[in-house]
Design goal:
There is one protein chain. The chain is an all-alpha fold. The protein has one domain: Growth Hormone, Chain: A (Up-down Bundle), CATH 1.20.1250. Helix content is about 80%, strand content about 0%. The protein is built from 19 helices and no strands. Helix 4 packs across helix 11. The chain is globular.
Length: about 400
């Protein structure tokens, strides 16, 4: 842990990192929060899935555009307007869901707007790491710490959501999410690193082909990385909502969902920190196949245990071990993206990766909602396993393309 502690002792690192973590809590809480709020107030899993899916579409369309803006205009000029717009739309959407007279089409329009205006916080923080940490070894440690934070948010965000549900009405989680998004982004943009403007050369280079919007997608190997991470995140989104279904089956209510999320969140944090603390001899592209395959195989075991009525301690242990394989996937994928694109397109490239991950998770939430409306949590978990194993298969098939463009570490 010495490398992580040394990083966080530097206020130039600690301040923007901690603010960005708060601002990125909504990455995990919005999709599942929408599912649970619509289910609770409108009593419709299918509408909940549709609202979340529309939010994912908006996110997929908006994030790469805002990521390119980071490269051209600097972070505060992009992050502040988008964060406050998204927070306002979330508050309006929450009020609309709570009003039975508001038609479903209005909910869909508001969800689309919230997705379109969601700020590119993870690509921004990735750029800030490059600005404030000059030592390459420490910077890679910082990337690992950031990836652990994001993946832990995906797992611990639902835990926070269930805690908020336990102390207040169903609208509290999304209201708290909007506050975290606006307040965290404002605090982040007041830090030194995010305020640095891109140089004239970088602005000129990123303006080339700006209207096309597909520049980074033309880079060799990038479409394969995005496909892999989208498929993995669909499985992750399925897992989130499936665990809500498991909690209802085992405890009679989703209110005790936190105990399940605590186990998998702990595993994710430990796995990411261990992964980031090592100097690996193998390439990221090879390790990505291994971690994805391990994640998928353990989801198969979870699906089997959900249907067999396994004892709670055994189930919690299985969730913890499953979590060990989650964060390393994001760390490896981020390193792959860094190696595949030029430095002046880093914000846009990481934005595409964020789009693949967050949109995939939201789509997984939506699919799980539809499955749970008509079937069981066991089937939803099995579907999650299939999505992650498909991601591992694509990563395996992409090795030749990645090997031709990424230098293998000595």
């Amino acid at each position: 842990m010495a490398g992580y502690v040394a990083l966080l002792r530097d206020p130039r690192v600690a301040a923007p990192f901690s603010a960005s973590v708060v601002a990125r809590v909504p990455i995990a809480t919005i999709p599942l929060g929408l599912v649970l709020l619509v289910r609770d107030l409108r009593d419709a899993w299918d509408l909940a899935g549709l609202v979340t899916g529309v939010f994912a579409v908006g996110l997929a369309v908006g994030t790469p555009f805002w990521g390119r803006g980071l490269d051209r205009h600097g972070q505060p000029r992009v992050l502040l307007p988008t964060a406050f717009s998204c927070a306002a739309l979330l508050l309006v959407l929450t009020a609309a869901i709570a009003a039975p007279a508001v038609p479903a089409v209005v909910l869909l329009v508001l969800a689309l707007g919230a997705g379109l205006t969601f700020p590119p916080l993870s690509p921004a923080m990735r750029t800030t790491w490059r600005v404030v940490v000059t030592d390459e070894r420490l910077r890679r440690r910082g990337y690992a710490l950031d990836a652990v934070a994001v993946e832990t948010l995906f797992v611990a965000g639902p835990l926070l959501l269930t805690l908020l549900l336990a102390v207040g009405p169903a609208v509290v989680p999304l209201v708290a999410t909007a506050v975290a998004l606006a307040g965290g982004t404002l605090a982040y943009c007041r830090c030194e690193g995010p305020r640095r403007r891109p140089g004239p050369a970088a602005r000129a280079e990123t303006s080339v082909g700006a209207g096309a919007g597909l520049g980074v997608l033309r880079a060799v190997g990038i479409p394969a990385v995005l496909t892999v991470m989208a498929a993995m995140s669909i499985g992750f989104g399925l897992l989130d909502v499936s665990m809500a279904g498991m909690a209802e089956q085992r405890f009679g209510s989703a209110d005790d969902l936190g105990v399940l999320f605590a186990a998998i969140a702990g595993g994710s944090a430990v796995g990411g920190l261990l992964y980031g603390s090592r100097s690996w001899a193998s390439a990221d592209r090879l390790r990505l196949v291994v971690t994805l395959a391990g994640f998928g195989a353990l989801l198969v075991l979870l699906a089997a245990s959900a249907g067999s009525g396994a004892p709670l301690p055994l189930l919690l242990g299985a969730l913890f071990v499953t979590g060990l394989f989650i964060s390393p996937n994001l760390i490896a994928a981020q390193h792959l993206v860094d190696d595949l694109v030029p430095a002046h397109r880093m914000g846009e490239a990481q934005a595409w990766l964020t789009t693949a991950i967050t949109a995939g998770a939201a789509i997984g939430n939506a699919v799980a909602g539809a499955v749970l409306e008509h079937r069981t949590a066991q089937l939803s978990l099995a579907t999650a396993a299939g999505a992650v194993l498909a991601a591992a298969a694509v990563a395996l098939l992409a090795q030749r393309r990645w090997r031709g463009t990424v230098a293998v570490p000595a």
